[in-house]
Amino acid sequence: MPHVSAEPEAAFIGRSDVMREVFARLERAAASAAPVFITGESGSGKELCARALHEKGPRASGPFVAVNCAAIPSELAESEFFGHVRGAFTGASEARRGHAEMAHGGTLFLDEICEMDPALQGKLLRFLETGMIRPVGGTSERRVDVRIICATNRDPQREVREGRFRADLFWRLHVLPISLPPLRDREEDILLLARHFLARFADEEGRCPMRIGADAERLMLSHSWPGNVRQLQNVLRQIVVFHEARELTAEMLAPLLPPEHGTADPHLQAGPPRLRVLERKAIEDAITSCGGSVPRAARLLGVAPSTIYRKRQAWQATGS
């Protein structure tokens, strides 16, 4: 049975082995008070994971405050994070609580942590060490109790090596790591997610549920989904809104999927009959060794999954 998060809007769904591992780590991490460091590509569900950690943990009744570190101007970073007193700077006509204080008793989610202003990184480190904040312009400190969850779509250790992220802050935050897989590594979940989104969007738009045709299924499975679950969600929303058909076809889907350039391997192109036989054997052997997973076999061979799907369809069409 697929695992479904407690929050239906999250669609944090999966039955693939990689997602089962994520769910297991999430369950264990949720009960802890230690910081969690989530990594994953854009659109892979990092904020959904953070919310699930909050909702499944002992702080579920407290606030969940999400902060996009990349969106805070450097000159306002300290005020946004720690707040300010009235008159602290031009325009500060009244006192304001910062994100850290607003999350008191709950969870502070720092999204895109590797893009945090360098000056604020040092202040965040001190806050993590002491649990105390001082609003900009203030003269006294106050204690704040939050659980920290952070996320990034970058390689955090590379950011540390190249001097863009403080090593001491990284090791303070990188206590319980959770890595979210891209959708292309979750072949078993693609159609599961697609059916979930189609049913949900049909209900929201007042439409009849749309089934997925076989040709559309093959196209979904052959696409690499560079935008991950968010891309799949957006594509299916468009289809539900702009089509009233009872079946989703490849003709509806194909125009919404950008071409995947440079993914075909020149060594797996058509050639002499003997070479084609060897090519097919290599592909089928790779699929077998990967437990039937075409995406994993494609990575093993160094080609795109769509290359393998196209070739298998051609073999079926010719009966060879």
Could you give a short description of this structure?
The protein is of the alpha/beta class and 320 residues long.
Task: Spell out the blueprint of helices and strands.
Blueprint: E1 3-4, E2 13-14, H1 17-30, E3 36-39, H2 46-56, E4 64-68, H3 77-82, H4 99-102, E5 107-111, H5 118-130, E6 132-133, E7 142-143, E8 147-152, H6 156-161, H7 167-173, E9 176-179, H8 187-205, E10 211-212, H9 214-222, H10 228-242, E11 247-248, H11 250-253, H12 273-289, H13 294-301, H14 305-318
Parallel strand pairs: 3-8, 3-9, 4-5, 5-8, 10-11
Antiparallel strand pairs: 1-2, 6-7
Helix pairs in contact: 1-2, 8-10, 9-14, 12-13, 13-14
Overall description:
This protein has 320 residues and is an alpha/beta fold. It folds into three domains: 3-179, 3-Layer(aba) Sandwich (Rossmann fold), CATH 3.40.50; 185-256, Helicase, Ruva Protein, domain 3 (Orthogonal Bundle); 266-318, no CATH class. 46% of the residues lie in helices and 11% in strands. It has helices at residues 17-30, 46-56, 77-82, 99-102, 118-130, 156-161, 167-173, 187-205, 214-222, 228-242, 250-253, 273-289, 294-301, 305-318; strands at residues 3-4, 13-14, 36-39, 64-68, 107-111, 132-133, 142-143, 147-152, 176-179, 211-212, 247-248. A five-stranded parallel β-sheet has the order 4-5-8-3-9. A hairpin with an 8-residue loop joins strand 1 (3-4) and strand 2. Helix 1 packs across helix 2 and helix 12 crosses helix 13 (294-301). The protein is elongated, with a radius of gyration of 24 Å. It starts with a strand and ends with a helix. Residues 1-11 and 262-270 have low confidence and may be disordered.
